[in-house]
């Protein structure tokens, strides 16, 4: 393998005992790896019995990213907020603990994709939904691995 090329091997086992092996080789960007992580999240969600069926029955969003986005869009359509604000709402709304770093990672991704604007204020980031996103519903995450 030449310089700059990377090799990853991911092995997963879901709650039902199904095993997944994924090997990646070549010029892998950070964006491609993040999409693989999102894909792995989807596998985990479906293995726990949620997914398409829950979405069709108007139940709460299954993925962590969708849950976070729904909190952002529902509670802060025009105002600013921090990752700590979302952490507190998430734990209250879904009755499950989540790390602040996970919230921050998703908000950062949304900012990079143009769904959120962010500005540094002191030691923290303050986020705000972009004007384009205020009028649009949340799109489903894309699993397209093209650069």
CATH architecture call of the largest domain: Orthogonal Bundle
CATH topology of the largest domain: Arc Repressor Mutant, subunit A
CATH class category name of the largest domain: Mainly Alpha
Helix content: 40-55%
Question: Average pLDDT across residues?
Answer: 75
The general outline is: globular
What would you give as the CATH superfamily of the largest domain? Answer: Winged helix-like DNA-binding domain superfamily/Winged helix DNA-binding domain
Integer count of domains: 2
Order of helices and strands: EEHHHHHEEH
The biggest beta sheet reads: 2 strands, antiparallel
Show unreliable segments: 45-58, 137-147
> In what order do the strands lie side by side in the largest sheet?
1-2
Radius of gyration, rounded? 17 Å
With helices defined by DSSP (H or I, 4 residues minimum), what is the helix count?
6
The secondary-structure class comes to alpha+beta
Count the beta strands: 4
């Amino acid at each position: 393998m030449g310089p700059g090329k990377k090799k990853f091997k991911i092995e997963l086992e879901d709650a039902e005992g199904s095993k997944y092996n994924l090997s990646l080789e070549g010029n892998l960007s950070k964006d491609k790896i993040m999409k693989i992580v999102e894909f792995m999240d989807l596998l985990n969600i479906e293995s726990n019995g949620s997914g398409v069926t829950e979405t069709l029955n108007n139940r709460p969003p299954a993925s962590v990213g969708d849950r976070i986005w729904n909190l952002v869009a529902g509670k802060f359509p025009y105002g600013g907020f921090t990752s700590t604000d979302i952490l507190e709402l998430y734990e209250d709304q879904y009755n499950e603990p989540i790390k602040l770093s996970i919230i921050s990672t998703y908000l950062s991704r949304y900012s990079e994709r143009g769904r959120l604007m962010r500005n540094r204020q002191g030691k923290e980031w303050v986020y705000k939904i972009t004007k384009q996103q205020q009028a649009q519903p949340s799109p489903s995450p894309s699993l397209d691995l093209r650069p």
